[in-house]
Amino acid sequence: MPTDTVYGIAADAFSPQAVATLLAAKGRGRSMPPPVLIPRPQTMDGLATGVSAEARALADAFWPGGLTLILHAQPSLTWDLGETKGTVAVRMPDDRVALDLLALTGPLAVSSANRTGRPAARTAAEALEQLAEAVEVYLEDGPRPAAETGGQSLPSTIVDCTSAPFKVVRQGTISLAALQEVVPGIVDAVHGPGSGSEPASAPANEAADETK
């Protein structure tokens, strides 16, 4: 499916079998759980618990758009995204086709449409070259993304909202300066002081080779 960053592989977020199939298609394990795309900000409260005023302010400022928020997952949900350590990474994409699809399906677990370690697809045809019959349906809507840097697709920025202060665990389309205009205390865990240790939230591992 198209998104505002690159093409992604989507699966029913509430179907463990579907999520397992998504991970298998990419050739990756449960240690790198996929983020969840949502059709509207209000859906965040159905998936996450204890969402702070600061996290809501970030969503209000940058959704729909290239910002992924790591939050505490609702413990009552019967889903299995992988080894999330009780968290969920959520984003509302700024793409009309993606939002129309999400409005029909509800939350989707989505990871970039590529085999792990290979470039993310910018068209459905590029995704087909890598994934073949591992994906059942391909939805083509032209090249993605609209914005590029150095010939590389711009990923979403990932902010871990389960820590204090919030931490940027992957830099992307939303700059640290822009985030700090909304929540001044956010720190850069990628390049800033004290960034030597890996963030505790499992979805932050998405930064390793993904561009969602």
Describe this structure in words.
This protein has helices at residues 16-26, 44-47, 53-62, 96-105, 124-131, 176-182; strands at 8-12, 36-37, 48-49, 67-73, 87-91, 108-112, 148-149, 152-153, 157-160, 167-170, 187-188. With 212 residues, it is an alpha/beta fold. It has one domain: DHBP synthase (Alpha-Beta Complex), CATH 3.90.870.10. Strands 1, 2, 3, 4, 5, 6, 9, 10 and 11 form a 9-stranded mixed β-sheet that branches. A hairpin with a 2-residue loop joins strand 7 and strand 8 (152-153). The longest helix is centred in the first third of the chain and has 11 residues, at 16-26. The protein is globular and about 45 Å long.
Distance from first to last alpha carbon: 12 Å
Strand content: 15-25%
Overall morphology: globular
CATH class type: Alpha Beta
The named CATH superfamily: DHBP synthase
What's the structural domain tally?
Answer: 1
Q: Assign the CATH topology.
A: DHBP synthase
Residue share in helices? 10-25%
Please give the CATH architecture. Answer: Alpha-Beta Complex
Instruction: Kindly state the number of beta strands.
Output: 11
The unreliable regions are 194-211
Task: Give the ordered list of helices and strands.
Answer: EHEHEHEEHEHEEEEHE
Given helix and strand content, the structural type is: alpha/beta
List the main descriptive attributes of the protein structure presented here.
212 residues; alpha/beta; DHBP synthase; nine-stranded mixed beta sheet; two-stranded antiparallel sheet; 6 helices; 11 strands; 24% helix; 19% strand; globular; disordered C terminus
